[in-house]
Amino acid sequence: MEAHKSKVVQKLGKEYDDKYKLAQKYYALLSALNNLKLTERELQLVSYTAIKGTITYANARAEFCEMYNTTTATINNIVSKLKRMGIFIKKDGKIKVNPIIVLDFDKNITLLIKLNHEEDRQNTDILEATHNQEDGNRDGDLRESN
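Below the sequence we write its predicted C-alpha cells.
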C-alpha cells in the first residue's frame, strides 16, 4: 500500500470593498475549479442575481444594465446559457442562482478547497462504492433503493 502523501496547507486572505466584488471572486473561484470558463459579464450576472435573489423583474434587469453598462439582450443570452449549465434555475416562475452555490455575501466567507491527486480520488471512489454496496444501494442512487 502506498504511503499517504503529505498535505500542503496555505491560507489566503483578501478584502473586498463591496459584496458584489466578493461574490464575483467566489463565483470566479467556482468557475476556475470546475473549468466552467465563465466570462466576466457572466460572473457579474451570477453575483448580482445571487445577492438580489432573482434577475426576473424589469427593475432588477435595469439596475444590472446600469451598474455594468450592458443591455437586456445580453442578460437574456447569459440567462439562457447559465440555465443550460445548471447555474441558474427557474423556481416559482423566477430566475434564480442554483441554491447549492448561493452564500450570504453580507458575511465574511471562509472556503475550504481540497485539491487531490487523481489516485487519491480513485481510492475515495472505491471506498464510496464499497459503502454504497454495503447499504444496499448498488446503483449509487438513493432514489432507486427499496
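The chain has two domains: 19-101, 116-146.
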